[in-house]
Amino acid sequence: MDRVRRGELPWTNFDRLHRLSLDQVLLDLDIEGFDMAAREELTIAWERLPPWLDSVPGLKRLSRRFTVATLSNGNRSQQTALIRYGGLPFQRLLSAEDVRHYKPDPEVYLGAASALGLEANQVMMVAAHKSDLRAAQAVGMRTAFVERPLEKGLGGGADLLPDPLADLQATDFMDLADRLGC
Fold first, then answer.
1. What is the pLDDT of residue 155?
2. 101, exposed or middle or buried, with CB in 10 Å at 0-12, 13-18, 19+?
3. Mean pLDDT score, 87-95
4. How many CA atoms lie within 13 A of 79 on its CB side?
5. What is the pLDDT of residues 17-65, one digit of tens each?
6. Nearest one of 76, 86, 89 to 177, comparing CA atoms
7. Distance CA 22, CA 98 (A)
8. How far is it, in rounded angstroms, from Cα 6 to Cα 2?
9. 56, 62, 65, 166 - which has most CB atoms within 10 Å?
10. How far is CA 98 from CA 6, 34, 124, in A?
11. Which domains does the chain have, with CATH numbers?
């Protein structure tokens, strides 16, 4: 994504960036035996990630009161497949692909607000990445941090509570729904 941001690559969607990365890793590690079909299968494996256990019930509760939308660096086809696979109840699908910029570029957040027919200050960005929330705040969005301590595996590295700069903090989507009166 940084290569696209710096202009070293033209706009390239997330699946193609993943494929470029996979090809480079296999080359760097001198790994053989992955034909084109296997490489494509690995590239689209993102489409079959199971949701966190609280995601579906928490998002359903939130959607009773709010428009619940994605805002992902993932391309539209990837997000559509992921939503379908996980049964995620998003009402709108917004992607960096729509504005041909990647988060944390301001165009992504402003484009999302515009696509929703809202001003940035009428939108709450909910994320498990504090850097994503800081970028959303920089364009005027409200923010909610939802902790995902196992996001990067047992080895750690995930952003953790507290996040005193966020408007709201939650342990998961059910907790967020509680805090927002849903």
1. 79
2. buried
3. 97
4. 20
5. 999 999 999 999 999 999 999 999 999 998 999 999 999 999 999 999 9
6. 89
7. 24
8. 6
9. 166
10. 19, 32, 19
11. 2-47 (no CATH), 50-179 (3.40.50.1000)
Residue 112 confidence (pLDDT) above 90: yes
Global pTM value: 0.90
Neighbours of 169 (CB within 10 A): 18
CA-closest candidate to residue 166, choices 112, 138, 113, 130? 130
- 131: which DSSP letter? H
- Mean pLDDT (the chain) is 95
Q: Is the peptide bond before 162 cis (omega within 30 degrees of 0)?
A: yes
The string of pLDDT tens digits covering residues 131-162 is 999 999 999 999 999 999 998 888 788 999 99
Give how far Cα 20 sits from Cα of 65, 81, 137, Å.
40, 21, 31
Residue 143 neighbours by CB under 8 Å, 6+ apart: 124, 125, 126, 127, 133, 136, 137, 165, 166, 167, 168
Do the Cβ atoms of 1 and 12 come closer than 8 Å? no
Please give the biggest Cα pair distance in the chain. 53
